[in-house]
Amino acid sequence: MGKILTKENLIRFGILNAGTLIITIGVYFFKFPNDFSTGGVTGVSVVLTHYFPSLSASNFVTILNVALLILGFLVFGRGFGFMTAYSSLEMSFVLELLERFVPMDAPFTAEPLMELLFAVGLPAVGSAMLFEIDASNGGTDIVAMILKKYTSMDIGKALMASDLVITLMAGVAYGMEAGLFSLLGLIIKSTLLDFVMESFHMCKYFTIVTKNPDIICDYIIKTLNRSATRLEGQGAFTHEDETVVLTVMTRMQAIHLRRFIRQNDPKTFMMITNTSEIIGKGFRGSN
After folding, report:
1. Residues 6 or more apart from 169 whose CB is under 8 A from it?
2. What is the value of pTM for the model shown?
3. Which helix (H) or strand (E) element contains residue 227?
4. How far, in Å, CA of 195 to CA of 188, rounded?
5. Cβ contact 167:93 at 8 Å
6. Nearest to 95 by CA among 131, 64, 130, 50
7. What domains are there in the chain, each with its CATH number?
């Protein structure tokens, strides 16, 4: 039991619940009332409510999620992800509760574009939080997992194509305006999800050309608790010996390093770039 209730697992569980709730809020309060369909299980549910009005979008989400979870367990057995199953069921449960206690008969505002931004923005942030802990919200992700297991199909393109079809179905069901808003939402969703995912890992990469590498490296190692790589070089114009210091750190640490170098070695040449894919000790992919 002690191995399960670790600090790391509790944090992951908290992120799992927070991400799922953020997705659910965006879907229930902004996506469903406006009949936005940007793909996935919730998008299919929005379309189905037009043809089967006796059931709500929340009901269809529950039915589809449970059916896909059963399919996932049949295909993958115990290897099926617990966090994905938990998130999928939690979302269905919370949607049913909200429908019962906080019914939404109409959108919050008369501004569909603003509602669209919340309808795709909140789920994008929530999904990025789940992806960060190697989880997902289930739904069509389960279909993708099955396709990946049994076919050589490009899963990313297959999911994009299915989302596009679902979005176009919204236009057929609810009219051109709803269809165009849904199509715009699909474009914003894919772009915003990538942006949020990269923001979680955004760091600063320094290329520092200096004649005083010792004071800079000491500050990086002893004060910022980071490491660096030193390369010996020569100025192409001056032909003077220089040292190139390479280091990567968080945005807050970068502010401190930049300020330190400006105060203590103002002639140092610095190049600072954004990077979100860093694999190694102290960053992702390290033990």
Report:
1. 37, 47
2. 0.77
3. none
4. 10
5. no
6. 64
7. 7-200 (no CATH), 203-275 (3.30.70.120)
